[in-house]
Amino acid sequence: MASLTLTRTQRRRTSLGIQYGIFAVIVLLFALSADWKQLGASFFRLDIAASLFPDIITVALRNTAVFTLLSFIFGLAVGLLIALMRLSRVPPYRWLGTIYVEIFRGLPALLWLFMVAYAVPTAFPEYQIAGGVYGQVTIGLGMPAAAYMSETIRAGIQAVPKGQVEAARSLGMSGTRAMLSIVLPQAFRIVIPPLTNEIILLVKDSSLAYVLGVTATSIELTKFGSDQVNARVNPTPLVIAGLCYLIICLPLSQLVQRLERRYQKSR
Prior knowledge:
Blueprint: H1 8-33, H2 36-43, H3 46-51, H4 55-86, H5 91-106, H6 109-123, H7 133-159, H8 162-170, H9 175-205, H10 221-232, H11 236-266
Helix pairs in contact: 4-5, 4-7, 4-9, 4-10, 4-11, 5-7, 6-7, 7-9, 8-9, 9-11, 10-11
């Protein structure tokens, strides 16, 4: 008589099959119970979607990408400086770096955008941020992003074996040259995946630019979508704006996964 006892592999496969079956039934019931006609009329009006082009790409999507890129470059530069200050042997530098990180991580980016756009001009009437809205978004989003990136960079620097620095110093390199030539290249190789995640966060944070009173030429995706919803009394523009965010974020997510796999293989 054949044994009815299942092996561990068979039990696992049976359990997965049952779970997949339950999930398929739930999805099927949901699909059959939904009013797809009403859903399409409310959220997927093709005529409204078509009328959004090309402005949603040539203006809104472009500005979202520009805001993200400028904020990331600014945040990366400041974040590197803060990370080096946090690792400095000079106590005041460490204190300043720590204060910066704690303050900018503890307050929302929306508040910093508001301060850059309104508080700074009020306090310094003669001071004008170069670039208008683009400059304000760069600083307003880049400063809190720098706090997060500085901690990522600091962790990457500390992950580089100290023996390599000691070997470089024994060959006559200065501490600065060893940092620039040996430590930072390896640290950035380690932190590229989490830094790419920061770009994804900045893509979504760029929607906060609405507090700056953006114009028709500097409008970004979320503001563009919400304005079109008010004008057309239909949420289809926000759905299309969401798809545009996915156009940016999904390739970046795939890039993060690929970089993480490559890093794991190289270890």
